[in-house]
């Protein structure tokens, strides 16, 4: 008998505040690092600016205006049968510079409305506390997470939202894709170690010392938040969130195998191990040595990490990668992580290599390592969608992508993995994190908003909307 998804499987969708809310300076909200990013495209990188340039388009400023459309959007999610809705809280709605002593009531009130609306529809929120929404003022003052001071500001923020949303939110993730900090480009939005930098996000000068120090502070902050939640709100379930890009050795030559092992450790396991096991892995020193990094730790940090391990492990999964011992070969695929082309896989229009079976493999690898419940909190195909003359949007390519990934998740469950849920990314079209485009769409719901900033913001269902509704209704049986 095949094992399949558990009865209480959390089907839903995922978004992030900065990519859909808009209202970037409304009701007291301050600018986040994402609000300082211009639009870009697959071929022209978006830019980070140190001030808001007049006449420049900043896609997060309006995004899809979920701030004023949340009721309509959540009703559509409910129509698909969502059990869970993953979103983030925009830190700068609650603490506009990150440094205030009291939270901004209007910001808190907005999320009350969002979570109440979810509750009305029987949808459980899954809340990312920090999803590329670091207050820009903390970048200017402390070089982002390089400053140890941020731990305290983060805790103030956590205490405010934990207290306010008690009874409304049960599932929390501390940092979105925390391991983005192990990659120079990823660090722009995640660690915020970009003080004074303006320019293309892909050309930010790499400062590993700052990135790894920042990650240490994020680990400590996450562990403190987890412990605080466990001590004060026993019903809270606390998770991590990793950008999991499994990689394969380019050949069976042992030098490629060992190279890939080192890559997997640095990019995927380093952050995971600290957050699940509560201590740095033995190989951490070799990563620090490679980058000439010395981490400043304080007395008590080791104990904090040990006492703040997560209850469940979540990750995004879009693609896999290929790693060779020959660095020249590691340049073919992926927007975010350099790697080689895999001749057995096709890639999306943005060069992300589509690998459903890699999801089964990854789930097994992660579960073998940690034995705690897993959740796939991002997955999906960024693609251009066309509206037909009759108004329909026939996104069969998206259905195909999701169907194959869900099938492989089912195989992983049959392999023995404890999988809690699945929230495909961008369940409603939103701004792309890597390029700032609207054209890179993921949604079951189309939003009439375009790359030049125009559009009516009207919502319409794509073909995948009814397909996903049926998937949920049959608990993944009818794909
Ligand atoms: C992840 C981020 C999301 C999201 C997604 C898709 O890295 O957590 O914020 O945007 O990737 O990426 P993109 O928007 O670049 O297509």
TrEMBL record:
The keyword Ubl conjugation does not apply. InterPro entries: GH, GH_1_N_CS, Glyco_hydro_1. Keywords: Glycosidase, Hydrolase. GO terms for biological process: carbohydrate catabolic process. GO terms for cellular component: cytosol. Gene3D superfamilies: Glycosidases. It holds the Pfam family Glyco_hydro_1. Signal peptide: none annotated. GO terms for molecular function: beta-glucosidase activity. Belongs to the glycosyl hydrolase 1 family. This is 6-phospho-beta-glucosidase. The lineage of its organism: Bacteria, Bacillati, Bacillota, Clostridia, Lachnospirales.
